[in-house]
Amino acid sequence: MNQLKxxxxxxxxxxxxxxxxxxxxxxxxxxxxxxxxxxxxxxQQLQLTNTKVKTSEEQHxxxxxxxxxxxxxxxxxxxSKKTNRTGVSAEVYGQFNKKEDFKPRVIEKNKDQIDRIxxxxxxxxxxxALDEQNLQTVIDAMEEKKFQPGDYVIRQGDDGNELYxxxxxxxxxxxxxPNQSQEKFLKxxxxxESFGELxxxxxxxxxxxxxxxxxxxxxxxxxxxxxxxxxDAAIRKxxxxxxxxxxxxxxxxxxxxxxxxxxxxxREVKYNRGDKVIKQGEQGDTxxxxxxxxxxxxxxxxLEKVYAYKSGDYFGELxxxKNTPRQASIIAITDCTxxxxxxxxxxxxxxxxxxxxxxxxQRYEHYLH
Length: 369
Known about the structure:
The chain is of the alpha+beta class and about 375 residues long. Helix content is about 45%, strand content about 20%. It has twelve helices and 16 strands. The strands form four sheets. Strands 1-8-3-6 form a four-stranded antiparallel β-sheet. A four-stranded antiparallel β-sheet has the order 2-7-4-5, with no helix packed on it. Strands 9-16-11-14 form a four-stranded antiparallel β-sheet. Strand 4 and strand 5 form a beta hairpin. Helix 2 runs antiparallel to helix 3 and helix 6 crosses helix 8. The chain is globular. The two termini are about 40 Å apart.
C-alpha cells in the first residue's frame, strides 16, 4: 500500500501538478466566465504546442542521423532548435514575451541610487539567481519613480509593462472578484517587496490594483529587460520553490496566486551536517521551512531529542506563538536546504494559518516544560 501511495504521489508531482498549477494560475489571471470551455481551449493549445516541439525535435534528430552536414551548417541548426523552443515559450506565456534583438537600456543614476537598488532587489527571489553581469544590467535598466498618497501604480485589468521594487513607503493591494460589487483588500506592500511581475511572466492584464497609501519611491524594470535577463531564471526559481512549498502541510490550503506571492518573502539558506540552525535561549524572529535534509531539536543539557524534522516540516514557530526566546536548539543531522522568512512577513501572508500552528505545537510541547 505504501509503495502504491508513493507511486501515485510521484506521478502527481511529476506529471499532473505542473500542468494543473499552470492552468490554475492562468484561470486566476484570466477569470473567464466559461471556465470549462476556456480550460479545454488552453489544454488544446498546450497539446498543440507540445506536438510541434516534439515533431520539430524529431525532424532535427532525423536530419542529424541521415546527413553529415558541413561545419558551417551546424550553427544554423542550433539556432533553429533554439528558435523553436522560444516559440513554445512565447505561445504559452504570450506573444509579447518573445525574445528579440535586445539592447538593454541604461538610465543614469548616482551611487546612492545604485546601492539602494542593489540592496532591495537582492531581497527578492526574482533576482537572486542572476550572476553579477546580469544583475548589473538590471540595475542599469531600473528607473526611479515616485508616487504620492492616493496615486494608482497599477490598476486591475490594465496592460502591464513594468515590475516595481519598493524602496520607500507603503502601498495597498486590492482586487475586484467576479460577482462582488466591492474591491477586496489583499495585502500591504512594504519596502523591499516587489510586484507586477505576473503580467510580465504570463502576458496577462494586471491581476489586482495597487495604490500608494504613503509617499512611495520605487524602482521600475521594463518588460524587455525582464524578458531577456530575469524571466527564465525567475520561472525556474519559482517552479522550484512551488514544488517545495507543495510538500509543506500547513501551506496546502493556499491557492496558486497566494503561493506565488508567498515565494516572494522566502529566502534560501543551506546548512552543513552538524551546523546549529537555532540556539536555545536566543530571541527568534524567523520561521523555517525544510526543503531538503533532516534536523533534530534538543534541550540544552539533555540527551533526549525534542523532535526530529524532515523535508516538508517547519520549525521556529514557538517563539512566534509564545513570544518567548527559542525553547530548544535545532541541529542539522544532514546537509540541509531551508527556506525562511521573518515572522512579520509570515503572519502578513499566512495569518489565517496561525490556528493550525497553535494546534500543531502539541507535537513536541510536552518536551519543553
